[in-house]
Every structure is written in structure tokens, then in C-alpha cells.
Amino acid sequence: MFLSIFENRLDKKGRVSVPASYRAYLSSLGYNGIICFPSFNNQSIEAWSQDRIEKISNSIDTLNPFDEKKDYFATSILSESINLQFDSEGRILLGQKLLKHAKIKSSMLFVGQGKTFQIWEPTNFEKFRVTARKKSNINRANLKWEQKLNN
Fold first, then answer.
1. pLDDT tens track for 108-146
2. pLDDT in tens, 62-116
3. Residue 7 contacts by C-beta under 8 Å, 6 or more apart in sequence?
4. Measured between alpha carbons, how far is 67 from 75 in angstroms, rounded to an integer?
5. What pTM value is reported for the model?
6. CA gap 12, 18 in Å, rounded
7. What are phi and psi for residue 111, nearest 5 degrees?
8. How many CB atoms lie within 10 A of CB 87?
9. Helix (H/G/I), strand (E/B), else coil: 131
10. What does the alpha-carbon distance between residue 37 and residue 22 come to, in Å, rounded to a whole number?
11. What is the pLDDT at residue 117?
12. 4-37 burial code (b ≥16 CB/10 A, e <16)
């Protein structure tokens, strides 16, 4: 899983090192990279494994092929996604489009989200974190343990 928060900086060539624990998790899944796209919900970058992006692609494929929603989702997620391979030192090159979306200049936070992670500009994330904490507290009763039936 992707857990915790790590801060890293862009190097002179515009690369950033992905946290070692994130790379190790991806490697255990058989991947040497990550799929990134601009977040719908926030000024952040979504980072997903190949199997996760395939799940969303399969979900999009279940929509009526002539429904405009299918085109909206495919365009907003799949066409905006970039497959980024790790170099020999575990770095990726995010590219200006993603960096601009997240308003990242040099420093960024890698924020674990369980099955995915996000990449944030630190000041923007801190504002979001405060809001998320308040809203999580208000909505905590909605989070329930999965009930398994014993047969």
C-alpha cells in the first residue's frame, strides 16, 4: 500500500525521486513505473498503478459506447494519463502539464492514499489536509468495517 507523506524536490533536469517504499510496493506488483494524470477533485496529480488504471478503463468501457459520459471520462482520465517509468535511481519526469496543474514549482509531497497516491504542492496540501481532517471527523460514522459472513 501507499502510506505516509514524503517530501522531495525536482532536480536540475526536472526529475523527482519517488519514495523508496512506493517504488517497492509497485515493484511487488511487477511495475517499474506509475501512471499519472491531473486530479479531478484537487490541484494535485493522481498516481496509479497499471492495474488500477486498467480497472478505470474497464469501468469506462461498461458505459454505452454512444453515451457522451464515456467520452468525457476517457478524455479526462485516459487521454490525460502519462506512463512514467522509473530511471535507475527511482526518479520520474512529471512534465510541465502535470506540474502546472498541481502548481508545483520545485518541492512536492507524495501523499499515500492506500491503493494510489497523490503528488501535491506542499502549501496547497496543507490547506486540503486541514479541511479533510475536519470533514473526516464530521463524517466518521460513514466509515464502516467490512462485514464478512461466516458460512
1. 999 999 999 999 999 999 999 999 999 999 998 888 887
2. 999 999 999 999 999 999 999 999 999 999 999 999 999 999 999 999 999 999 9
3. 107, 108, 109, 110, 122
4. 13
5. 0.91
6. 16
7. -115, 110
8. 13
9. helix
10. 17
11. 98
12. eebebebeeeebbbbbeebbebbeeeebebbbbb
Pairing of strands 33-38, 45-48: antiparallel
CB-count exposure of residue 125 (10 Å: 0-12, 13-18, 19+)? buried
Domain ranges of the chain: 5-137
Q: Report the chain's terminal Cα–Cα distance, integer Å.
A: 29
Sequence letter at residue 135: K
Superfamily of structural domain 5-137:
Transcriptional regulator MraZ domain (3.40.1550.20)
Distance CA 74, CA 61 (A): 9
Contacts 24+ apart (CB under 8 A), 53-61: 53/78, 53/81
